[in-house]
Design goal:
Belongs to the RNA methyltransferase TrmD family. The chain is α/β, with parallel strands linked by helices. The protein contains nine helices and nine strands. The radius of gyration is 22 Å and the shape is elongated. Bound molecules: S-adenosylmethionine.
């Protein structure tokens, strides 16, 4: 996969090159990451990329021409152009899985009051928000999207770091996890996890996943269909009550 980031602040993304799993994935050529500085495409003698909003109002808007030229500098017929924006669809694991299947993703990182809407309407395939709040710029949302995609790419996580039991992957939040010591300040690890009985452990985890999801994110239960393995394990638990 190739990821191109269109930004006014390419230096912010140096973090990704040194950060453990993502940095290693880059080093091992699991994906290619390029940053494109939108300002390099400004034809203004002062390299300006923003201007006042038509109709008035506070703040500045990113002009369409440099963004258009920046997109065209890397776009091919395989490209999927994403604009990170609080007005976009809320990012979730399903969207991440879809993005991880693309050959080429272009991530447009906005700034100031956002980008001229003619770019969004005509040259962006998808608008994605990372949450119902407004940040100062699209750099952090872009990094969130990259991190979430890259860990799903083949060979990025080792086999013992599988994401299939993680929160959201099968529509439920992850069950509670524990590690050594068995007794931490008088708080013990649930006995069942020490039993070695894999089937009982699996059932314990599913019941706990359901409990945590119902307590913290009931919307996930309403909006997702359980996968076949989880449903048959739950049916089995009910049968044995
Ligand atoms: C200050 S925001 C612009 C907000 C815009 N005026 C609005 O009210 O929707 C500047 C940039 O930050 C990014 N941004 C801010 N919040 C975001 C969010 N929740 N998700 C994704 N991108 C966000 C976008 O790229 C946006 O263009």
């Amino acid at each position: 996969m190739i990821i191109d980031i269109l930004t006014l602040f390419p230096e912010v993304f140096s973090y990704l090159y040194s950060y453990s799993i993502i940095g290693k994935a880059l080093e091992n050529n699991k994906f290619v990451l390029n940053t494109v500085n939108i300002r390099d495409f400004s034809k203004d003698k002062h390299k300006r990329v923003d201007d006042y909003p038509y109709g008035g109002g506070p703040g500045m808007i990113l002009k369409p021409e440099p963004i258009y030229d920046a997109i065209m500098s890397c776009k091919t017929e395989k490209s999927h152009v994403v604009y990170l924006s609080p007005k976009g669809k809320l990012l979730n694991q399903e969207i991440v899985k879809e993005l991880a299947r693309k050959e080429h993703v272009i991530l447009l990182s906005g700034h100031y009051e956002g980008v001229d809407n003619r770019i969004v309407e005509n040259y962006v395939d998808e608008e994605i928000s990372i949450g119902d709040y407004v940040l100062t710029g699209g750099e952090i949302p872009t990094m969130v999207v990259i991190d979430s995609i890259v860990r799903l790419l083949p060979g990025v996580l080792s086999s013992d770091e599988s994401f299939e039991n993680e929160s959201f992957y099968q529509g439920l939040l992850e069950y509670p996890q524990y590690t050594r010591p068995e007794n931490f300040r008088g708080k013990r690890v649930p006995k069942i996890l020490l039993s070695g009985d894999h089937m009982r452990i699996k059932k314990w985890r599913i019941i706990n996943s359901l409990y945590i999801t119902l307590s913290n994110r009931p919307d996930l239960i309403c909006n997702n269909k359980l996968d076949d393995t989880t449903s048959s394990l739950i049916k089995d638990i009910i049968k044995n009550i």
